[in-house]
Write a structure and sequence with these properties.
alpha/beta, L-arginine/glycine Amidinotransferase, Chain A
Length: 233
């Protein structure tokens, strides 16, 4: 599979879109932290090269529980990775070369779908058990708050966060946005990807250095991404 991309712009320009083997839902397959991008071993070479060039990350290759949907099953921050408890010993070993690893040993284990975080906060699926929330708080050393985003319980897919901003589902209520602002302490704005998809986490990979969005993301949507995450000059 080949990743199609429009990355032939000057490095100073931030409008960047890409696909994963023709699929614009790049956030399902990949998880990006400020210094690391975790991708499946089958990720196309030009996809990995784009992440290295635009986001300035080291690319780490592994499946999670034998699956390529790494972005849905894994998340993390500077403290460590949070991953499905069904990850194999070999997959955990790969991750432990770069971060401490916390396993979600519960039926609610698609970490990338149900957790949104940066280095200072985490919001989680509102039905996450209290014991799990407490364990996550101890591991991350940050507040962990149950919340919906645009009425969506899968907060990791309904938003994207860095230490500079949070982009949330366009149907997010004023109360949800205000609560997110209180929790995150960074700018929070609404937006979409891939021509109106509100599940922005499925189509956006972003860190403090830059971003890549799903191939179908429009210029207007890119502008919102740049505004919220502070990439406008």
């Amino acid at each position: 599979m080949m990743a199609r991309s429009r990355l032939n712009l000057p490095r100073s320009e931030m409008q960047r879109t890409i696909s994963y083997g023709g699929d614009p839902h790049i956030g399902v397959f990949c998880r990006v932290l400020d210094d690391i991008a975790v991708v499946p071993p089958t990720a196309p070479p030009d996809f990995k090269s784009a992440l290295e060039e635009v986001l300035g990350v080291e690319v780490v290759s592994t499946t999670i529980q034998g699956s390529e949907i790494v972005g849905s099953l894994l998340t993390g921050n500077a403290k460590g990775f949070i991953v499905s408890g069904m990850a194999t010993d070999r997959e955990i070993s790969v991750l432990e070369e770069h971060r401490d690893v916390f396993l979600l040993e519960h039926t609610m284990n698609a970490a990338g779908n149900i957790i949104l975080l940066n280095d200072r906060f985490a919001v989680v699926h509102p039905e996450m058990p209290g014991e799990m929330i407490g364990s996550l708080k101890d591991f991350l050393g940050t507040p962990v708050t149950p919340l919906t985003v645009g009425g969506v319980k899968a907060v990791g897919m309904a938003a994207a966060a860095t230490n500079k901003g949070v982009l949330v589902h366009p149907r997010s209520s004023r109360a949800e946005i205000q609560r997110m602002e209180e929790i995150a302490g960074v700018p929070v704005g609404t937006g979409s990807v891939n021509r109106g998809t509100g599940l922005v986490g499925t189509g956006l990979l972003v860190n403090a250095k830059g971003y890549v969005a799903g191939l179908e993301t429009t210029g207007f949507e890119l502008g919102r991404i740049e505004d919220v995450f502070g990439f406008l000059e």
